[in-house]
Amino acid sequence: MRAIWYWTTCAAVLLVNSLDIRGEETVIYVSPRGNDAWSGRIESPNQDRSDGPLASLTAARDVIRKLRAEGRLGTFRVRIAPGEYTLSQPLVLEPQDSGTDASPVIYEAQGPEKPRFTGGRRITGWKKQPDGLWTTHIPEVAADQWYFEQLWVNGRRATRARSPNKFYFYVQRKIDHFVDSATGQSVETSNRAFQARREDIAPLFNIPRERLSDVTLVTYHSWETSRSRLAGVDPQQNIVTITAPIPWGFAYWGPNCRYHLENFRAALDEPGEWFLDRDGTLFYYPRPDEDMTTAVVIAPVVPEFVVIAGKPENEKWVEHVTLRGLVFEYSQYILPPEGHANSQAEVTIPAVIMLDGARHVNIEGCEIKHVGISGVWFRRGCTHCRIEKCWLDDLGGGGVKIGEGWGSDLSQPAVQTHHIVCRNNIIHSGGRIHHGAIGVWIGHSGYNEVLHNDISDFYYTGISVGWVWGYKESLAHHNRIEFNRIHHLGWGVLSDMGGVYTLGVSPGTTVSHNVIHDVYSYDQYGRGGWGLYNDEGSSYIEMKNNLVYRTKTGNYHQHYGRENRVENNIFAYSMDGQIQRSRVEEHISFFFERNIVLWDNGPLITAGRINDDLVKFASNLYWNGGREPIDFQGMTLEERQAKGWDVGSIIADPRFRDPEKGDFTLLPDSPAFKIGFVPFDYTQAGLEGDAEWRKIPESFEYPPVEFAPPPPPAPPLVLDESFEFMPAGRPPLEGQAISENRGDAVVVTTERASDGKKSLLLRDAEGLANVFNPHWIVRPNHTNGVTTLRFDVWLGPGALLFHEWRTWDSGPYQVGPSLWIREGRLTVGGKELAKLPLERWITLEIICPVGSSATGKWQLRVVGPDGEARFQDLPVGSQQFKDLTWIGWCSMAQTPTNIYIDRVILQNQVP
Question: What helix, strand, coil percent values describe the chain, rounded to 5?
């Protein structure tokens, strides 16, 4: 019996060992010289070319499936020879393509030279035209079999023909309702139409209506942009309509909404621009250093490169797969017929490597470049995955996305993404199409690590964490954002951004040991660009040992949140102010302790309030170069300390070695040690590993701190408004209408009109909280020349009209022209000028030099049924009145009365 047992055991061991040997590792070869009909089991084609390597990743996947079906076990290693591979479809990996912890599936470069997978196609056949443009014909485009919206020349992204070439046009006013000049039909166009300045859109008048949808409208909305297809242009009224509404509309953030137009032949007027006609003709205007006889021109075909297609809702995963040392480049993005618009972070834009239901899937040492969408998205049900030492560059969208935004299921753990590592990556030059995209975005996801990355050259935020506005449940907790170098963001294009931006309740989250610099936002509507930005509801986050310098609006900002800890940071050289706390709530906002704050321009506090017991400042060092006493919002440091605020804080030169050149090393005699500041090695932020890898970001060129010259001022507001475009019963589209909804109103009406069929009604009522309600205001932004305002007014019995011009951006305002009409008596500065009839239309015309042309005087012309009167050299209300930034019409009666306004004409003539 013992002998039988011995030989049986030996046989079993031999069988197991033979299986382990047979399944230990299987190598599959892929080569540009390969053939998908071959086995892939030998590295080079055999002599009679009957077998050899495969030609594609998809074929390698299929061979692994076949071998598995035949019973082969163990690791599968797909070794990919250097060279270029053209993709016609993405590699799709499903649960059956998984490996195990002991036996993974690896797709990797065969040697040190990385194989290149391209989703593009080379464009040839270029011919020079007499006008200096180069053209080629693409039959597939003419046959409606291919179309593209991106183009690269010698590896450099070309510009789709746009107008204006630099900066923006400005919306004159939004249009929610109008009568189409061509059809005579009334059209509802809420959030999908605006009136433009005629000269801006004149080239569109010559485009056939069936080709208008090829024109793209890019609209800028503070922290986002939308991309829309044109539906129509009304040349009689200069109205542009788009195919679908956009979230923020055309005036949500105030007047002068910015936009530009892309992809029409007349816009092709600057080197580096291109235009693709539907007849198959591709036009290109070469840059001076480009020779089109030798240029490599690539247009994209494939949108995605790799799709990890697990089904986490069914607990079916793609597991233990690695992509290593591969290059993916040239991907497609086509704007859908309805256009594209997100409310924030370009949250729905996909990535060229999409992962759902992935566990232990790693992306190592890869490159993703020249793409129309984002780089990598660990989207739904992904856990314990990593992207490491990858280079993502020239991205249409963002870099790395983790988790979901809208539509996330917070109740099912299986579909939630967590424990993702994003480490030691270069993420550079993003948002090239989708401007609001982010370097690394974490939505509803926790326990992630974003470490040692170099993130730069985006138009919006570097790293964003969280997807809850306020104090509701959030999955974005216990995230580590540490040792990253985040820089050169914004470029003056978008607003309300941060080097690191957070949302929602985030216990366990740390934002530490990062270096953030050169964050420059578009200066509009008070929304800025900060280094560390705790936005809505951000709570319980530790922000420690960060170096933040050269930002636009402040190095630290909390909109609102609870008990965040901002400790032992260096904040230096923000342009417009250093610290901001926007909202006071009935709990501690944040702790601001042992920080060094250094600046040479602007106030310490950008906006908001710090002088109360619900924000805790202590043991900080402040230094403004000693140029003037530091103002703590109307208090000195000593006065704050007497109230128990900023205890232990000092005003002193921190004694950095050379801060203006970026050396923030503390000298041994620094007074910062007295506040308990602990020095940290900020040079550890950024990439890690071999010197060659760490030097790559040094090759990127950036202008100095003033790297984003501001656009020219928006054109002054010009009005010719008879309210005919606007539906009755609604507030006016132009300006801002303020009422209390207690019987009062500011609405368009058909009750009477001096011109046409409509006018604007200011209906007053009793018992209003504010005597100046209801009122209507516009913001002209007139900074030079002479402004003329003419309007018709009809006053009912008991009406009391107050009309005023102001210089008013924030704080106290300065009064320009100002008048009252009370019981028909027109008064200026308390002096009665004329008696006006009630219940009759009267025309008032005000003429006043403004801005740099201001003289302190203005003129008034009154035209009524009894004739005309003129009044010269009337004094403005304040001699400090300059720029015209506010005009208001207020009903001050406090009783039920009606005032009608019509034919509002506002002009500005600059010498």
Answer: 10, 40, 50
State the residue for tokens 């600059």: 910
Strands 152-153 and 156-157: antiparallel
Residue 750 CA: distances (Å) to CA of 83, 722, 905 = 72, 12, 20
pLDDT value of residue 717: 83
Instruction: Note whether 172 and 214 are within 8 A (CB).
Output: no
In three-state secondary structure terms, 593 is: strand
β-bridge partners, 117: 85, 328
Give how far Cα 369 sits from Cα of 91, 308, 583, Å: 17, 19, 41
Among the listed residues 300, 439, 445, the one whose alpha carbon sits nearest the alpha carbon of residue 376: 439
Q: Are 91 and 305 in contact (CB under 8 A)?
A: yes
Could you write out the DSSP letters of every residue in 543-588?
A: EES-EEEEESSEEEEESSEE-EEEES-EEE--SS-SEEE----SS-
Band (714; pLDDT cuts 50, 70, 90): confident
Helix, strand or coil, per DSSP, at residue 216: strand
pLDDT at 562 over 80: yes
Residue 11 has what pLDDT? Answer: 40
What architecture is domain 719-909? Answer: Sandwich (2.60)
850-871, pLDDT tens digit by residue? 999 999 999 999 999 989 999 9
Higher local confidence (pLDDT), 736 or 659: 659
Q: What is the pTM of this model?
A: 0.88
Residue-wise pLDDT for 628-642, tens only, equals: 899 999 999 999 999
Kindly report which listed range (250-259, 439-448, 745-754) carries the lowest average pLDDT score: 250-259
**Chain segment 764-775, per-residue pLDDT in tens:** 999 999 999 999
Q: In this structure, what are the phi and psi dihedrals at residue 96, rounded to the nearest 5 degrees? A: -65, -10
Counting Cβ atoms within 10 Å, is residue 649 exposed (0-12), middle (13-18) or buried (19+)? buried
Burial 797-833 (b: 16+ CB within 10 A, else e): eebbbbbbbbbbeeeebbbbbbbbbbebebebeeeeb
**pLDDT over threshold 50, residue 8:** no
Domain boundary assignment for the chain: 121-298, 459-709, 719-909
Query: Where do the DSSP E strands lie in 196-289?
Result: 216-221, 224-234, 239-242, 258-262, 273-276, 281-284
Q: Are 495 and 527 in contact (CB under 8 A)?
A: yes
Report which DSSP code applies to 686: S
